[in-house]
UniProtKB/TrEMBL annotation:
Subunit-level organization: Homodimer.
The protein, known as: Bifunctional protein FolD
Domain Tetrahydrofolate dehydrogenase/cyclohydrolase NAD(P)-binding, first and last residues per copy: 141-280
Pathway: One-carbon metabolism; tetrahydrofolate interconversion
Enzyme Commission identifier(s): 1.5.1.5, 3.5.4.9
Pfam families for the chain: THF_DHG_CYH (PF00763), THF_DHG_CYH_C (PF02882)
SUPFAM superfamilies per record: Aminoacid dehydrogenase-like, N-terminal domain, NAD(P)-binding Rossmann-fold domains
Cross-referenced InterPro entries: Aminoacid_DH-like_N_sf (IPR046346), NAD(P)-bd_dom_sf (IPR036291), THF_DH/CycHdrlase (IPR000672), THF_DH/CycHdrlase_cat_dom (IPR020630), THF_DH/CycHdrlase_CS (IPR020867), THF_DH/CycHdrlase_NAD-bd_dom (IPR020631)
Length: 284
């Protein structure tokens, strides 16, 4: 394969950020406050702190206000639910982000589901997922939606294609499969119990790797001319879920790591927050 398309999420996010900043400025002038995102982080997980800090920095650069609530590690599910409800009732907040993962003693899904649907800008609630899967109005999960925006921007047509999603997490694999299905792809969702995974990879025209294991997939398994989306990133190894050596000779398009999916995730979160303010303020 000669000169495959590089699905450059960094450049697309930068382009989208210009439009988001304009919209945020208009909203600030009109409603006398900026779009606002409340982030909740439970405990002292270093990776979670880094991710939230990155989101705060990105929001600030685009004129979106962030309010970060640092909750002690020993907090209970009930205490977290009380905080979420208080933010639900705060009309100056447009979106709520509960940083994943929460400590194991927290009922994370119960807390996700407590986020008001019109503030679920991270697309993590059960109702939001259901609406999204059924093609109804909902904030779509940020990483899967960011991937779909990336494919659309580079004119990757999913219709009729055999798509393989490797991973079935609540916030990535499952919603990714649903969005591809809604885009008229024929979708297979693979996971730890899947048999003959290598054969499925060889047959798929679109592969989304979301397993969270460094270089889990050798790119030489991929079908010639297929499209690869690597949704993994492992900072210590500076790689994704796919061993990319030789990728240019195999696929027709692929996401670089880093610089592919990651920038689109943060951009989509901020886009959803601005969309939330526009919708909620217009209905008041």
């Amino acid at each position: 394969m000669v000169n495959p398309i590089i699905l450059d999420g960094k450049s697309l996010a930068e382009k989208s950020n210009l439009e988001i900043a304009k919209r945020a400025n208009i909203l600030t002038d009109k409603f006398k406050r900026p779009p606002a995102l409340a982030a909740i982080i439970v405990g002292e997980d270093p990776a979670s702190k880094t991710y939230v800090s990155m989101k705060e920095k990105a929001c600030k650069s685009l004129g979106v206000k962030t309010m970060t609530h640092h909750v002690p590690e020993q907090a209970t599910t009930e205490e977290l639910l009380e905080l979420i409800e208080a933010i639900n009732q705060d009309s100056s907040v447009d979106g709520i982000l509960l940083q994943h993962p929460a400590p194991k003693h927290i009922d994370e899904q119960k807390c996700f589901n407590a986020i008001a649907l019109h503030k679920d800008v991270d697309g993590v609630s059960t109702n939001g997922y259901g609406n999204m899967a059924m093609g109804l109005e909902a904030f779509k999960s940020c990483t899967p939606y960011g991937i779909m925006r990336l494919l659309e921007n580079f004119q990757i047509d999913c219709s009729g294609k055999l798509a393989l999603v490797i991973g079935r997490s609540q916030i990535l694999g499952k919603p990714m499969s649903a969005l591809l299905l809604n885009a008229d792809a024929t979708v297979i969702t693979a996971h730890s119990k899947t048999k003959n995974l290598e054969k499925l990879i060889c047959d798929a025209e679109i592969v989304v790797a979301a397993v969270g294991i460094p270089k889990f997939i050798n790119c030489k398994m991929l079908k010639k001319g297929s499209v690869l989306v690597d949704a993994g990133y492992h900072p210590s190894e500076k790689c994704g879920d796919v061993d990319m050596k030789g990728i240019e000779d195999i696929v027709s398009a692929y996401t670089p790591v880093p610089g592919g999916v990651g920038p689109m995730t943060i951009n989509t979160l901020i886009l959803n927050t601005v969309n939330a303010m526009e919708k909620n303020c217009s209905e008041q």
